[in-house]
Specification:
five-stranded antiparallel sheet; alpha+beta; about 170 residues; elongated; two-stranded antiparallel ribbon; 6 helices
């Protein structure tokens, strides 16, 4: 594959095409600005050389003879050339039945900072939070909510158990 003749080159988001050993076969030009790297540092190079150590689940796929059948996602901390700390969400997509992958990168730094601040505020103010997944009929309690209700940190309430922690008429 000749990199300059491929259709992914002009995609408006950071994307890599990798072989099974995670050597870059092609990339979108949006990746160059996103990672602040020179194009010569990317093509035909191992992604570890410019991204750093990969999450363990990606390391398990790299170089394996098995073909990934569904997308794989994880987060990576990356230090830019300007010495800025960035959080990236990496999503590895199988490319059909070939031994190649698409790797999509998303900068989630602002989301990560906002989440960390919210969790810190929750702990300091002792405000619990919870979330209901109506599709799977599951409920998730934050650590502070579990502390408030005096249950172990591994406690996973179902919808009926969770609602019974609140006074009748207040839920």
């Amino acid at each position: 594959m000749v990199a300059s003749d491929t259709s992914i080159r002009y995609l408006p988001f950071p994307l890599l095409v990798l072989n099974k050993d995670f050597i870059v076969v092609d990339y979108s030009t949006a990746l160059i600005d996103f990672l602040e790297v020179e194009p010569v540092r990317i093509l035909k190079k191992d992604i570890v050389g410019f991204l750093g150590e990969l999450p363990m689940c990606f390391q398990d796929v790299k170089g394996s003879d098995g073909i990934l059948t569904e997308p794989l996602s994880d987060f990576l901390i990356h230090i830019t050339r300007k010495s800025e700390l960035k959080w990236f969400k990496l999503v590895l997509y199988p490319q059909g039945k070939t031994a190649q992958y698409y790797l999509y990168l998303e900068d989630v730094t602002k989301k990560k900072i906002a989440l960390n601040l919210a969790l810190q505020a929750e702990r300091i103010a002792r405000i619990g939070s919870w979330e209901v997944d109506l599709i799977n009929n599951k409920i998730h309690w934050s650590e502070v909510t579990k502390e408030i209700h005096g249950v172990p940190s591994e406690y996973e309430p179902d919808l009926e158990q969770g609602i019974n922690f609140y006074k009748v008429g207040y839920h």
